Amino acid sequence: MMYFSRLKTALVLGTCVLGALLCLPNLLPAPASWVPWRSIHLGLDLRGGSYLLLEVDMGAVIHERLDGLADAARQSLRRAGIVRFLVAAQPAQNRITARIDEADKLEAATTALRELAVNNSQGSGSRADIEVATEGDNTITLTLSPVALKQRATAAVQQSIEIVRRRIDETGVVDPQITRQGDSRIVVQLPGIEDPNRVKQLLGKTARMTFRLVAEDVNPAAPVPPPGVDFLSDESMAGGKIAVRRRVDVDGANLTDARAGQNSQTGEWVVNFTFDSVGTRRFADISRANVGHRFAIVLDDKVISAPVLREAITAGRGQISGHFDAKSATELAVLLRAGALPAPLTVVEERSVGPELGADAIRAGALSLAAGFVLVIVYMGVFYGMFGLFANVALLVNLVLLLALLSLFEATLTLPGMAGILLTLGMAVDANILINERIREEVRNGRTPLNAMETGFRRAFATIIDSNATAFLAHVMLFFFGAGPVRGFAVTITLGIVTSLFTATMLARLFMVRWYATNRPQTLPV
Amino acid sequence: MIFITPPLRPLLRIVADNTRIHFMRGRYLGLIFSAIFSTASVILFFYPGLNLGIDFAGGIIMEARTPGPADFPKLRLALAAQGVRESGVQRFGDDSTLAVRLEAQPTEAGTQVMVSKVRAALEEAQPGTRIVRTDAVGASVSAELFQKGMLALGLSLLMILFYIWFRFEWQFAVGAVVTLILDLTKAIGFLALTRFEFDLVMIGALLTILGYSTNDKVVVYDRMRENLRKYKTMPLRELIDLSINETLNRTLGTSMTVFLAALPLALFGGSTLSGFAWVMLFGIVVGTSSSIFIAAPILLFLGEHRLRRDAGSPAKPATKPA
How many contacts does A have with B, using Cβ atoms within 8 A? Predict the structure, then answer.
């Protein structure tokens, strides 16, 4: 073990130089765009910023899917010539039920619903993701399969991430990070934002806008709305209800643009919007057929305004007015441009840190790091002499290599991560202590210096591996189960264990070998 | 590379090379002390219990800096006026910094409402007040974080058990894991006593103590295994004493460096890290002493006859350890 070929020496030293080079991006700006320039990111707890954990309301996603399926079922049953039936959604069982009250048409109903199940499946491949079964003698159930539910959930989260990104981009936050976590959560990281209130407000609305006709023949004071009609609260009449048809004529998804502006005559704040071609055509048809009637602009189940259609609107442009001020008009425009969320989002965790607090944390961390480093170095020098100094140089290189790996992975350095670096340094020299003690023991057993070094390294190595392996495993666990800044701790410690194995056993050994070859001492300074 | 130097010898040793302390004479004492401390810790764990941080308990902590000295009565009134039921408004560090704590809210949405209310109340009571930190964790997330933290601890213990089992005889593995569990209970007792907040970072500290304490045990165990092969006829008790003495400088030295590294964190690490570092320091002391006074006696009890069973073969000269 005490022989280093030229190649091996070059490899060991090359690794150290490479490590130093990889650290450069943390100190200097990139010299050119083609140079890979990866650096360590500071965690939000150090640089200041906000971390939001959002939960997608999966109940709402499933509910909506079942409602859609129920609507489709009603239509196909009607098309099959069945008149007396009752379709209901049962979200708890992930299914809808259809009670057919015409015994002779049960067969036809089943056929129609089976057909619907095949056509309405959204999964890929041939496997139907809706299961059709009969229950009792007059009820048919359509159940969403677990696979279908999962696909639906995945799609909803994916779509939510996209919408969240668009909305946050509108706020001008620099460098936001939006990632998925688990089955139903989204992590939003906003560097430099210490008050995420505006972002939270923007994300707090699903912003689903629909254009529907007002059911003018229905009295909204009735206790229960008739089928196909909803009683929605009317924002323009404080607290009042308005009867609106459930059928959506044009959806907000058909908007291409929305801008806040002021009405040139009244000076009132409005939102001007433009439909895409599908929306334009549909709106033209609807408005032509309903001139003189009212239609409602509904946002998240609230009617913003319900104007009367004075003429057919064919240009695909429109204006929403409804007691806006500059702020709320701008916000609505932003939401409409970004699109609707497939389901409501709830903030389930928030962590915001102001930049000055982050700076305090960096100062505290750096001070501790420096002090700890000095203490360890002095200790090693005093208790292990020459070989202790080698260990100290190796320790310094270890720090460089650790920073290099963190840069290479573009890891996030958090405050606990800094603690991790410090602890790694404390543990890294443990390997050197084990080696030095072993060498000392071998010398006392009467071995020659070279032989003692050789044996010392070899025998200490198994112990070093065993003791580091367990610490490594423990922190890998922490990485997988931890969350937030503490993962930074796990990252620095695990990487530190890897680099310290290299520096303590390879680099320190190289120093000893070179030193021995140059000095040929009769006794070892142990 | 040129290293022409006079060989610099070590200036100090922790213990002399010929130290022969009969640790195993004190084995009952060690176990009794450990049992007492661990039992006390378990009691402390239930009463008064751990001071759960918001990672695990859920709730809200907001730290604010007021332009002048914080006017606490006024701030409390403003919070009450907003309908905020705080569970503490305290000075935090200096006169113009304060922390507001709220317990977990019944609903996730309620948590966010409270965050806005606290913000509004503070800004209104002392205009110019800035919220410098907000931690708001809902009930579902905190329950999950707690579960995952415990899972990480449990799985780590299992992995250590299997690793040591794989590398040593089972007596070693059982000895190590029993000792680790005793170490862990003491660290938890320390947490309960000092009222440091138990949060994810603390789980990190406990895992580090686990990993670190295992290191220490592996060093001693390695030597025992080596000596078991080397001295085929030496009674286990003497052999364990010999092994501990031979590795004493290592056990103490490795602990010392980690201790020195963690000490500045405890002193200057700031509110987030100092609790973490104190628990680390405590764990290092406990882990080091348990390697000698707990792990070794357990091995002595477990292995009195078994580890020596295959010692019937004639003594061979020392073979190299694995």
Answer: 284
What gap in Å lies between CA A286 and CA A256, rounded to an integer? 19
**Please, which residues 413-442 of chain A have a Cβ atom closer than 8 Å to chain B?**
415-416, 419-420, 422-423, 425-427, 429-430, 433-434, 437, 440-441
Q: Which of B50, B25, B97 is nearest to B191 (CA)?
A: B50
Given the candidates 1.20.120.80, 1.20.1640.10, 3.10.180.10, 3.20.20.70, the CATH classification of the domain at B23-53+142-312 is 1.20.1640.10
Cβ–Cβ below 8 Å for B270 and A360:
yes
pLDDT tens column, B198-244: 988 898 899 888 888 888 888 898 899 889 888 888 888 899 999 99
Structure ipTM: 0.88
Tokens linked to A258: 């929305």
Q: Closest approach of chain B CAs to the CA of A409, in angstroms? A: 21
The span from the CA of A89 to the CA of A114, in Å, is 17
Both tokens of B265, joined, read: 């964190």
Residue A205's SS3 state is coil
3-state helix, strand, coil in chain B (%, to 5): 65, 10, 20
Quote the tokens at residue A190. 């906003």
Task: Say if strands B88-92 and B94-102 run parallel, antiparallel, or are unpaired.
Answer: antiparallel
Residue B308, Cβ neighbours under 10 Å: how many?
A: 16
Tens digits of per-residue pLDDT, A313-327? 888 888 888 788 888
Domains of chain A, each with CATH number or no CATH: 6-48+355-519 (1.20.1640.10), 58-150 (3.30.1240), 208-321 (3.30.1360.200)
The interaxial angle of helices B200-230 and A415-444, nearest 10 deg, is: 10
Range B7-35 burial, b when 16+ CB lie within 10 A, else e: eeebeeeeeeeeeeeebbeebeebbeebe
For domain B59-137, which architecture applies?
2-Layer Sandwich (3.30)
Given phi > 0 = left and psi -120 to 50 = alpha, else beta, which region is A246? alpha
How many CB atoms lie under 10 A from the CB of residue A179? 10
Mark yes or no for CB contact A55/B149 under 8 Å.
no
* β-sheet with A185-191: strand ranges across: A177-181, A185-191, A49-56, A345-353, B130-137, B59-65, B94-102, B88-92
Crossing angle of helices B270-290 and A415-444, rounded to 10° = 30
User: Residue A347 in 3-state DSSP?
Assistant: strand
| 3-class secondary structure, A299 | strand
The alpha carbon torsion through A418, A375, A428, B166 (nearest 10 deg) reads -100
Q: Which of B177, B186, B188 is nearest to B154 (CA)?
A: B177
Closest CA to A214 of A320, A305, A287, A296: A296
| Mutation for A interface: B208, B245, B288, B319, most A CBs within 10 A | B208
Q: What pLDDT, on the 0 to 100 scale, is given for residue A121?
A: 66
Domain with CATH 3.30.70.3400 in chain B: 59-137
Residue among B158, B161, B215, B251 with most chain A CBs within 10 A, to mutate? B215
- Classify residue B48 by its DSSP letter: I
All residue ranges of chain A with pLDDT < 70 are 1, 121-128, 239
The sign of the dihedral angle between the CA atoms of A360, A363, A369, A371 is: negative
